Amino acid sequence: MTLASPPANRPDLLDPLEVSRLGGIEVTTAGLVEGFLSGLHRSRRRGFSVEFAEHRMYQSGDELRYVDWKLLGRNDRLYVKQFEEETNLRAMLVLDVSRSMGWTGAPDRLLPKHEYARRLAAALALVLLRQRDATGLLAFDEDVRATLPPKVSTAHWHRLLRMLAGLEAGRGTAAERALQRVVEQLRRRGLVIFISDLLLDRELVLRALKFLRHRGHQVLVLHVMDPGEVTLEGPAEARFEDPETAAAVILRPKDWAEVYRRTVEGVVSDWRLALRREGIRYHRLTTDLPFGLALREALVRPPGLA
Amino acid sequence: MIGFLHPLLLWALPLAALPLVLHLVARRQPPTVLFPAVRYLQQATREHQRRLKLEHWLLLAVRTLLVLAVILAAAGPTVAREGLPGHAPTALVVVLDNSASSAAVAGGTSRLALLRGAARDVLAKATPDDALWLLTADGAARRGEVSRLISLVDSLSPSAARLDLGAALTTAQGVLEGESRPSEIVLLSDLQASALGDAELRTPLVVVRPEGDPPSNAGIASLDPGPQPWSPDGGSVRLTLSGEAGRVAPVSVSLGGRAPRQGLGTVGETLTLSLTSVAPGWRPVTARLDPDEFRLDDEFRSVIRVAPAAGVTWDPADRYLDAAALTLRQNGRVVDGREVTLGRLGAGASVVQPPAEASALGALNRALERRGVSWRYGDPVGLLQVSDSGPLVGREQVQRRYRLESVGGAPRGVLATVASQPWIARSGDIVLLGSRMEPDWTALPLSAGFVPLVDAMVNRLARGEEAVIPASPGAPVILPDLPTEARLDDRRWSVEGGAPFRPPALGTYFLLAGADTVGAIAVNVDPRESELAPATDAAIRGLWPDARIVAPAAARAASFAAGARGDLRGPLLWAALLLGLIEVALASGRRRKRV
To answer: Does the interface ipTM go beyond 0.95?
Structure first.
C-alpha cells in the first residue's frame, strides 16, 4: 500500500533548489510547512512530544502506521489514532554552519548543505512553534556562532528567521562545545534536533549526544549530505581537498567510486547504530530530497519509540 | 647462451619502456577539487590503497612484459639445449664434396664412401619439419625429403669436377637466406687445401673431415703438344705432373693408337717426349701414369692436329721473305703451292705486307674490304720504335710502319703490337703485317725469330689455328666461332659458336662445323684435384671462424646444433598471449570496480 500522490503544486514536495527560488526563507518556509501539514491532513494535535488523545475515522491519505489494528479487528472499521500534544516541550535546533556545510557538488542543481539545513531548521521551528513548543536555535562552526533561547511567540519566530538568514558557512567544526551550551539552555527535559553533515570528531560528538540523552533529552540527528558526497565523481584524476582542514587525496574517482560508496554506507551505518544504541533517532537527508519528505523523516516518530 | 635469428629487431627493445613512459606522462599534477568528505576518501583509500597500488604496478609490469615478449619473439631467440633429445625445425644444407679428389682411397676406403656415410647419419637425424638441401660438386642445391636425399647420397659417385668450397658455402648460405627456421650448413669434404675459399657465412657451419692422412699421389697436370698443326713428321709433347712434391712416376704417352712412348716424370718438373710421325688429321693423345690410390688424375687427354706442310706461293723479289720461305721449303715445312700466298693478298689464305709504294695502299685497302677483312692500313708512322714482346714476336726495332685500323667493332685478332698499337693482326685467313719485312722498315727479318715467325704465319695463322680448348668437367668454355656440334665418342651436342658450353664428363670433345672438324675440347681433371694435402684446422678457421670441425663419426651428434638450440619464439608468444589475457583481466577488473 502506498500513500496517495500529493498535489504537484505543494512546495514541500518540490525540488529544494526550486523552493529556494520561490522567495525568502520566511515565505518559503511558511509555504513548506503549510504544504507539509496539509499533507498530514492537518491532524489537530500532532507533534513530537504527544500522547494518545482519541480515534477518528480513517481518511484516504492517512498513514497506515496510525491505523488502530486492534480496533479494526473488533469493529471491522478503520480508525486512526490521534495524539494530544504536550504543552511544556522545549526544543533546541542545533545547526552546523561550518565551512563543509557551505559545499555543494552541483551548484546549478543543488543547494549548499547549509542553505538546505537553514530552510529545514526554519520549517522545523515553525512546525514546533505552531505546536506551541518553545523552540530555540544554536548555530556553531568551530565555536558557537549564534544562540537563541527557546521561546514560544510569533516574534520569536521572526527573530529565529533573522538569525538563520544571517548565518553563512563558517570555518572548522567543533560540535561538542555547542552541545554543552545546549545543556545550559535546556534545563528541563526537552528535544534537541542536531542538524549537521557530521564531518566532525565522531567520538566527541557521540559523547556529547550521550550526555544529552543522559540528561533526559530526546535527541534527533539529521545528517545532511550532498549527493556528491554519496557518489564520488569528478575528473579522470583529481586532488580532492578538504575545505576545512586542507587535507588532500589524489586519486582517480572512477577507480575509487565503489570503494568510496561502501565506505560512506559504512559511515552512515556506524552513525545509525551508535546513535540507536543511545536511543537517538538518526536520519540521513540528501540535499536533493524535497523538504516535505525531509520533514516527514524528521517529525514522524516511529511507533514505540519513546 | 641465447642467440637471435633477427638480432636487429632487438633495437626495438626500448619500446618495452613505453607503458612506463605513458604512466609517467599521465602522472601530471591533477586539478584540485574541493571536497568536504575527504575523511571518507582517506578512510576508503587507507583500506584499499595497497591493493590498488599493487594492481596498478602489476598491470604496468604485465604491459611491459607483454611488449618485451613480443619484441623478443620477433627477434627469434634460441637457446642451447644440448643433451636434450630432438631438435627444433631446422633449415639444413648438406654440402657433400664429391669432387674428383673424393675418389682417393685411403685405408681401403674411398674418401667419398666415408663422407657418404656421415651424410646419411646427418640426414637420418632430420625430422619432417626440417627443410633439407643437398649440394654436391655439380654446384646444384637439391631440396628434398630425408628419404630422397639419402637415396641421392647413396647414388653419388666421385665427380671429375672440382668443387670450390668457398663458392659452395656461399651457395648454401644463399639457399638459407630468408629461412625463418634456425639454419645450419654441414660441409662433408676431404678439405683439400687448394679447395678452400672465402665465404661470408651467417649460419652455423659444421665441417666433417675424414680422419687420417690422404694417400700419396701423383697426377698428370698438363699435356702440351706445342704449336699446331703438327707436320706428319711428328713433334713433341711437354708433360707436367702434380701431387706430392718430388715424387717420380713412369709416364706413357700414346698418339693416335700408336705404341706409347715411355718416360719418367717428376712432380714439379717438365717432361718432354717426342712422338713419331703420324698421318694428317685430328689425333687423340693420351698420357697415363701407373695407377695409384687416386685414379682420376692418372690419365690426361688432349688432341693434336696433324696437317701436311702448307703449299705456299711468294714473290722472289721480296728478298727476306723469299729467304725464309726457301729455308722452310728445304726443311719440309712448306711446299710450293697455292694454299697460302706469302707477302701479298692472294686469292686464298694470305700473309700481307704493305706495298712498297704508298700509292698502291688505297687499292690494297679496297681489296681487303672486298674480302671482308676487319683490318685496313692507315696512316704511315715514321718513328723508330720497338715492338712489344709477345708469344709471336719478341722486342724488335721498327722504323717504319702503317697503322693497322680495325674496321667496325672492337679490334680482334691482334697478334703483335708496337707501342701498344696493332702491328700484326689476323682476320679470318688473312694475316696483315704493319711493316714490310725489310731492314729499312724493321729489324725483324734480320733476327733469329724471323723464320719461325714465317713458319707460324703460313702453317698456323693463315691456315687457321686449330683450337684445342683445355677444360674441366662441368666448367663452362667459350666455343670458337665456327662449330655447330660437339661430339664425345657417340654422344653429340648441338652448340653455337661463341657461346659457352659445359662439357659434362672427362674426354676429348671434337667440335664440328658441318662435316669438318674445326677444334676440340680436352676435358681433364682439374690439376688442383691432384693435390690431396688437406687444409689445417687453423686454415679452416682462418677462413670460416665459427666452423665446428668434427670427424665423420661425430657428424650426427654435431649436426642440427642450430635446431638443438631451442626456438624460444613459441614459448614467448604463448607468454605474450598469457600476459595479454592477464592484462585484459586486470584492466577489466579495474573497470568493473569503477562502474
So the answer is: no
